[in-house]
Design brief:
The protein is mainly α and 610 residues long. Among the domains are: 98 residues, no CATH class; 107 residues, no CATH class; 175 residues, no CATH class. The protein is built from 19 helices and two strands. Strands 1-2 form a two-stranded antiparallel sheet. Strand 1 and strand 2 form a beta hairpin. The radius of gyration is 67 Å and the shape is rod-shaped. It starts with a helix and ends in an 11-residue tail after the last helix.
């Protein structure tokens, strides 16, 4: 409007006078014209000053137009830049945002006001996304560095990932997070493996008595004294170092176990040899347990330490020196043990290690006492083994001897005239006698079974079965012969009694009276003393039986009495066992002659064995 007024003042006066002065500029121009008129300015000067004023106003308006154009251009550029940035952000973040459209009807400022909040939201999302990417990528790089053992490069500050800012999509973020999870799992697995290896190293060092801290620090300093999982090194080199350390420790453990077991084996032998007390062994109880244990079972602290092994070696050396001074006593003690085993099994001990020979050899120094001891221990082992093979036969021998004892008791019981009296314990003896009669009837079958068993034992081993130095078969066969002879003597005695009864009856018929009591008693005495081995009733001496300790052992009372009589019996054939036994029968004439010999106080004719 001012520009129009000034343009009006630039015209001629007729036109200028017709310009409206109702506007503020018009009123000012009118006031200015009045002032100039009062001053007396010429019209030419007024026209010139109005022209200058018009020119100055034109410059002001021009500046305003230029400024407005510049602002419009700036707004358009800003709008275009924001639209471009908006597109870049949408492409970078990958967000699905409503498409921005330019509305020509809206002013530039309205369009900017519409796009600016959307752009700010995307910028904030981008910043947040960058932080997420930076965090994930930092963790990835850190774990990779821990695995590759190059984590020092991350100590100076965060890693710059600006080169990857062009792709901040959720898909790429998901890929990075998946990669991070895999690395975290690998880290966890490695960390667990490191802990397992370190625990194993700790156990091995504890058993071997080694410095655990120094051992693991030699692999990596972070393996001891670490306060958190992040400070524990999990690189390949650390795992390889731990593996090599474990292999070395296991090899060392294997060597020490072998060495200590050898030492403990010697220690056990010396303990048993020296008969060490429990108090003396107590100090080495943990070490002694190594002997029967595997490598995995040996877990006691410092049980395989060098100090423990050295201490055990010193104990073995001490006992070895002590053993040398007590060897003679130990050898004689082992000999007594051998004699006890042989005595219980009724075997003869090896006379090459008799006590007097042992004493002479040790005193002369010609033989090492350890060799003698080893020889006797070998004999003890063989004696025990043979005793086990003889066990079945020896049990049968014991039952046979028990039956012989019962037979002897039964014979004594039958000779007791008061056995049927109503005295105290008579019923018990009656029951025992009944059982004894049944048992005595089994003695022949017992002997036959024993002979068969003994023959089988001898055939299997090609050696004679000796009982206290005598061959058991010879003893049994002689006992068998004596039982047959005893039965024959009993039969003859019964025949003689019958013959005596007939003679008495004949005398009564001839003489008409009984013999005087004095003659009868004399006859009975002669009859009872007829047999040298008789016991007054025509019975033989009781069969072999076991005799209590300290009592005298009569000839042929037990199998032990046959010692030395049948040592060469094994070379003979089994003629007595196979051939039948034929005894001569006693005729009536023999009986008469026997009675005559009794009257004449002559002994019986001997029994003939064909």
């Amino acid at each position: 409007m001012g520009e129009m007024v000034l343009a009006g003042y630039g015209m001629d006066k007729a036109v200028r006078s017709s310009v409206s002065f109702e506007t503020p500029c018009g009123r000012l121009l009118r006031k200015l014209e009045q002032i100039w008129t009062e001053i007396g300015e010429r019209e030419e000067d007024k026209d010139r000053m109005f022209l200058e004023l018009e020119t100055e106003c034109m410059r002001v308006y021009r500046r305003k137009v230029d400024s407005a154009n510049a602002e419009r251009s700036q707004l358009r550029q800003s709008l275009m830049a924001k639209e471009a940035e908006l597109k870049v952000l949408v492409a970078s973040i990958g967000e699905i945002t409503p498409k921005f459209k330019v509305d020509e009807k809206q002013s530039l400022k309205e369009q900017l006001a519409k796009v600016t909040p959307l752009l700010e939201d995307l910028r904030s999302k981008k910043e947040e996304r960058i932080k997420q990417f930076s965090l994930v990528q930092s963790q990835i790089e850190k774990i990779k560095a821990q695995i590759s053992d190059h984590n020092n490069q991350h100590d100076n500050g965060p890693v710059n990932h600006s080169k990857d800012n062009h792709d901040l999509s959720t898909r790429r973020l998901s890929d990075l997070q998946a990669e991070l999870r895999n690395l975290q799992k690998e880290k966890s697995d490695r960390l667990q493996k490191v802990f397992i290896y370190v625990d194993e190293v700790h156990c091995l060092c504890s058993v071997l008595g080694m410095d655990f801290a120094k051992t693991v620090k030699d692999v990596h300093p972070s393996l001891h004294g670490a306060n958190s999982e992040n400070s524990t090194n999990i690189s390949d080199s650390t795992l390889e170092g731990l593996t090599e350390t474990i292999l070395k420790l296991k090899a060392e453990k294997r060597t020490r176990v072998s060495k200590l077991q050898e030492i403990v084996g010697k220690l056990h032998k010396l303990w048993n040899l020296m008969e060490s007390t429990e108090q003396e062994r107590r100090h080495f109880t943990r070490v002694a347990a190594v002997l029967g244990s595997t490598e995995e079972e040996i877990t006691s602290s410092s049980v395989l330490s060098l100090e423990t092994i050295q201490e055990t070696e010193e104990e073995v050396e001490r006992l070895t020196k002590q053993k040398a001074s007590r060897m003679k006593e130990l050898v004689l003690k082992k000999r007594l043990e051998l004699e006890d085993i042989c005595s219980n099994a009724h075997m003869e001990p090896d006379m090459s290690t008799a006590p007097e020979k042992i004493t002479a050899l040790i005193d002369s120094g010609l033989v090492d006492p350890c060799e003698l001891l080893s020889s006797i221990e070998t004999q003890i082992a063989k004696a025990r083994e043979e005793s086990l093979t003889r066990k079945d036969i020896m049990e049968k021998v014991d039952r046979w001897l028990s039956a012989c004892d019962e037979e002897t008791w039964l014979e004594e019981y039958n000779q007791d005239s008061s056995r049927y009296s109503a005295g105290r314990g008579a019923h018990i003896n009656l029951k025992r006698a009944e059982k004894a009669r049944i048992l005595v009837q089994k003695i022949p079958s017992m002997i036959d079974n024993l002979i068969a068993k003994t023959f089988a034992w001898e055939d299997e081993r090609s050696v004679p079965f000796l009982y206290d130095g005598a061959r058991l078969v010879a003893i049994l066969e002689e006992q068998k012969l004596r039982r047959v002879q005893k039965e024959e003597d009993k039969r003859r005695h019964r025949d003689q009694k019958k013959l005596q009864s007939l003679l008495l009856k004949e005398k009564e018929l001839i003489f008409g009276s009984k013999p005087s009591p004095k003659k009868t008693s004399s006859f009975n005495r002669r009859t009872s003393s007829h047999h040298p081995n008789g016991n007054g009733a025509g019975f033989m001496t009781p069969v072999p039986r076991r005799v209590s300790a300290g009592s005298a052992t009569p000839e042929l009372l037990t199998p032990r009495s046959y010692s030395g009589r049948y040592n060469n019996y094994f070379k003979e054939n089994r003629r007595l066992a196979a051939a039948p036994l034929n005894f001569s029968t006693v005729s009536k004439e023999d009986s008469m002659s026997s009675f005559a010999s009794i009257s004449g106080s002559e002994p019986d004719s001997p029994l003939v064995l064909h």
